[in-house]
Specification:
The chain has 18 helices and 16 strands. The chain is α/β, with parallel strands linked by helices and 444 residues long. The structure holds adenosine-5'-triphosphate (ATP).
């Protein structure tokens, strides 16, 4: 690493440089603020040892100027023994660490070791983040439909505050994805995002998972655990499937929401929580309240800001964009030259119910890209549910409008036709009219 040593005392600079070089790093000395700033402007440094009392200059101010030029510089302050307050202030302003004077070469080596370790962890986190991003399709939080558009707007506006958000919607509509996105857009983005999947645990385990427990609180509690509320301190706690949280735990959750207080299992000491809560459920919570399975007070407390993500069937204006994004992603990651959906497939997608919503769309497209022999996804590449009759509800003579009947007829003809000309001929309309009708039906 390249290490800059900033101190107005030549003897301190020299002993520090010797310790730095003995640890295998390159040391450069600067006697004052001006020379230090010039040095970091000219060449990159990894670490800087900086004296708090730098002759005429205030070390804390120099710290800020150095970080403004080189934000990733790890600045270690040399402080007088008695001056703990200055050291705390330096850390608050972004210093990496501090060493009280007088110090030993071991302390210099120790702090350099700490910087190396932190840097290695940061690089690893960046690599893992890049790997995760390359293994999953990009998140698309936009919508061409007014309903979800409004829901997303509300969620992103609420992200800026510390407000609790309730996300409703059927399975696979992207509630967890939206919760993460809210966290990413919040002031707490650098702190943890912690998920508790409520239905996966028994009542006892869920309570301990949330609030932690002390050793001996129950059989099997062999050590103290802090719980996920504490793990999310300063960040976001996401309660997935909150509709399934047992009634016995609900008052504790209400207290957490209202008073930000909780207790570990087996302890009576109240603890304070500084977390933003996001909850999601695919259950109709109001119905759960009526049925006595969900506390009314908790429901009202959660329901202050609630957004609903509709099913994919109610987002025809978004279906094609999501499908195209998934296609591009899986074609690239699987190394296949698949570029498009056949018109028949587009029609089948538009006519399908999508009970599994975005999750199902993603899986269907991944499978189709794997199976497609050519550059276009054909009906044959789709799973069984796309091969049956399009819809049992819209049939001749059933209580549907002429428009719906026409739409359904066009979809079915498109599914069975050899190509678009063939479909236009069967329908008795010219290809341009068919094009306009497909457009109106959201098939292109
Ligand atoms: N905005 C989005 N952009 C791209 N893909 C998405 C988006 N939202 C969801 N998905 C895809 O759908 C999958 C399911 O999303 P998610 O787990 O957030 O749904 P959910 O509503 O929380 O489901 P459940 O109710 O079953 O827990 C994700 O893994 C992702 O592949």
């Amino acid at each position: 690493m390249r290490v800059l040593i900033v101190d107005d005392e030549p003897a301190i600079r020299r002993t520090t440089r010797i310790a730095v070089e003995a640890a295998g790093h390159a040391g450069v000395e600067a006697p004052n603020a001006a020379r230090a700033l010039k040095a970091v402007e000219e060449t990159p440094f990894d670490v800087c040892f900086l004296d708090v009392k730098l002759g005429q200059d205030d070390g804390l101010e120099v710290l800020q100027r150095l970080l403004a030029v080189a934000p990733s510089l790890a600045v270690v302050m040399f402080t007088a023994y008695a001056n703990v307050a200055t050291a705390v202030e330096a850390m608050r302003r972004g210093a990496f660490d501090f060493i009280p004077k007088p110090f030993t070469p071991e302390q210099i080596r120790g702090v350099l070791g700490k910087v190396t370790k932190t840097r290695a962890l940061e690089t690893r986190v960046e690599q893992l983040e890049a790997q995760i991003a390359s293994e999953a399709p990009a998140i698309d939080v936009s919508s061409a439909e007014p309903g979800p558009q409004r829901a997303l707007q509300i969620a992103f506006k609420a992200a800026e505050s510390n407000a609790t958000i309730l996300i409703l919607g059927p399975s696979g509509t992207g509630k967890s994805v939206l919760a993460r996105e809210v966290h990413r857009r919040s002031a707490q983005r650098d702190a943890a995002f912690v998920t508790v999947h409520c239905p996966s645990l028994s009542r006892e385990l869920l309570e301990s998972e949330l609030f932690g427990h002390v050793k001996g609180a129950f059989t099997g509690a062999i050590t103290d655990t802090i719980g996920k509320v504490a793990a999310a301190e300063g960040g976001t706690l996401f309660l997935d499937e909150i509709g399934e949280i047992p009634l016995e735990i609900q008052p504790k959750l209400l207290r957490l929401l209202q008073e930000r207080e909780y207790e570990r299992v087996g302890e009576t000491k109240p603890r304070h929580a500084n977390v933003r809560l996001i909850a999601a459920t695919n259950r109709a919570l109001a119905e759960e309240v009526k049925a006595g399975r969900f506390r009314e007070d908790l429901f009202y407390r959660l329901n202050v800001i609630s957004v609903t993500l509709p099913g994919l069937r109610e987002r025809p204006g978004d279906l094609q964009r999501f499908a195209a994004n998934y296609l591009a992603f899986f074609a690239a990651s699987l190394g296949k030259p698949v570029k498009a959906f056949s018109p028949v497939v587009a029609a089948a997608f538009a006519g399908y119910e999508w009970p599994g919503n975005l999750r199902e769309l993603r899986n269907v497209i991944e499978r189709a890209v794997i199976l497609a022999p050519g550059d276009t996804i054909e009906l044959n590449d789709l799973p069984e549910q796309f091969h049956g009759p399009a819809s049992a509800v819209i049939t001749v003579g059933s209580r549907v409008s002429l428009d719906d009947l026409e739409g359904e007829h066009i979809r079915r003809v498109l599914q069975s036709a050899r190509n678009l000309d063939d479909a236009a001929k069967t329908l008795g309309i010219d290809p341009a009219t068919l094009y306009r009708k497909r457009q109106k039906l959201g098939l292109i």
